[in-house]
Amino acid sequence: MPNCRSMLICALLGHWRSGMTSPPSSAHLRDAENPISRWCPRSIKRLVISVLSIFVVMLAGPAAAASVQSTSEDQRPVPTICEEAISQESDPIMLVNLHAGQCKDYDAVSADRQMFLLDTVHDKYAQSSRQTHAIRPGPPPVASSEIERRRITDPTSGKSRVGLIPYPPPEDALPGRWTYEFLVNRVPPSRRQIVLNELGTFVLSRMYSLEPSKEERTDEEPYVFNGDYRARYVCVFDLTVQEVLAGIYIEKWLKQTVGSPKRLWAECSINTDENWHPTREPSNLFQPIALETTSDLYLFSVEVRPQWGGGGNIDHFEGRIFDLTRCAHLDACYARVMARFTSELTAAFAAPPLGARRETRPRPPGQLRFKRAFQLSNVLRGFRGPYYELSTYSLFAWQGPNENFIGGDHRTMARLFANDVKFKQHVFLQVSQGLQVSVGADGNYEEPKPQQYEAYNRAVEIAVRLAVARTTRALNGKVVNNVGIIIR
Amino acid sequence: MPVSKIRDILGIFYLGTTGVLGAYIILFQETMLLPIAAKDATSAFQIIIPTFVAQLTLIFRWIADPPTNHDAATSFPSWAILGPPFLVLLILGATIALLITDAGSQMAGGQIFKNSVTFCVSLLGATSVIIIARVFGSGTD
Description:
Radius of gyration of chain B: 17 Å
Structural class of chain B: mainly alpha
Largest sheet of chain B: none
Low-confidence stretches of chain A: 1-43, 53-74, 216-223, 306-317, 404-411
Mean pLDDT of chain A: 72
Distance between the termini of chain B: 16 Å
Shape of chain A: elongated
Structural class of chain A: alpha+beta
Helix content of chain B: over 70%
Order of helices and strands of chain B: HHHHH
Oligomer: heterodimer
Largest sheet of chain A: 8 strands, mixed
Helix content of chain A: 25-40%
Strand content of chain B: under 5%
Shape of chain B: elongated
Number of helices of chain A: 15
Largest interface: A-B, 12 and 17 residues
Number of helices of chain B: 5
Radius of gyration of chain A: 25 Å
Mean pLDDT of chain B: 86
């Protein structure tokens, strides 16, 4: 019973705490400072926590009071992992192994609930060691200029996607209002090189831990299901580059650590098909593994904390392609347009320079996938080479209202506008491309250069516009501002 | 074979190979003339150039300050002098020709080129480098 009561109190206090691991929306992350942190002097905050602690002692005993104190993370110093807890073996099963009472900076409770991400990632990496893949996606774009150049948008706003957002392990379900939270742990100087050596094994990380993407497991709507998988890989970010530093939401941890930031190791993820072939741009959600500053090295652990949960959605927005407002019978018109558009898209993507064939596997309504795997890239013929490509184009078409476009959140669209005629009057299209290139068919398929991305952007745009124009002409419509207006 | 001729052959071989191969890797990486990734080209460059430049340093140090009585006859057989450079040129030429012909379509060009270069460096390290130390060393006069 005391445990239950302390959990309840922790959950209530969770409202006040800043939310680096709360729902990954940009507004939330920017304004996540809790009201107490912003408006109350630190002394008042301490007083409130002290009073609550006394209250907790009366209700649940000393252990729960310690738990309440520990939730005041702004005041909690960064704990230092003791030397004994870090293995000195060359290839340990667990690098960090905290036991209760072993390190003075960790009380018995916090020692038991720490899960170090370096060990978690290493474990997953080792488990998929037999599946060797030479496909090495680049890190998700962080700098705002890079995000804009690649036209990666947040479908909920239509604006450019925000940078990298830390996000705790979503796959492990927890009771309501509880979530995982990251904790920064200082590595003792005497063990720094051992940890750096371990981190060095992830340089140019291959993908690992292929598993069905979350949508496949949880969503019931067939149009949301896309059959994609999610592979993980380790990215290393150079934080000495100011634009990179500004694009990664780690301010809170930088305030806790000492020295100027140098490098961040993170577990990134990317949607793939069942053959580990990337299908979209990498996700901008990441799990931090380690942070190096000019003074120290820090490892991240995860612990269970009370907090709110949420989700994110990332897509590459293309735009509105058809206007069906003049159609007499909307459903029949949409079916006719999409049938023709599908065949025109198939032809446009199959033609040079894209040269991608349509996947024959049946897909949900409104979704198409084209692929060109391990073949000479026609798009990059003007570049040095010869470049071979691994391209997967995922196309999502849906109906929506013109004046209130809210992007690719299909479920919200469907629920809000299921009975509204305006919901069906315009057709939108998103194109997501997973792209890796290699010099030679048998080389390492890695992230292309920005100029190469741009060449593909142009080629994809031309193919989509061509398909829209041909479809519109075939259905006796006219194209205005790249949107096909269907007459009947 | 007179030692002066040995010096000419090895000097020209090392100077020519270092210059031509280095420039070739720098200029033609990631093109149809050397269809390998820049990373592989850099690796190959880093394998071959330090070894070759070290030999060139020995050679030109000798040329700059030749000892007296440096044309004494030696007992090196001709094949020991001509064989290694000939083989290395043959291997490198064949590798590059193979990569150009394949154009990256089937073979792992970068790996093949790195292996080929490493093999050539090892071959020279076990053969011509010893001759160079002998004929361009201070004790040859």
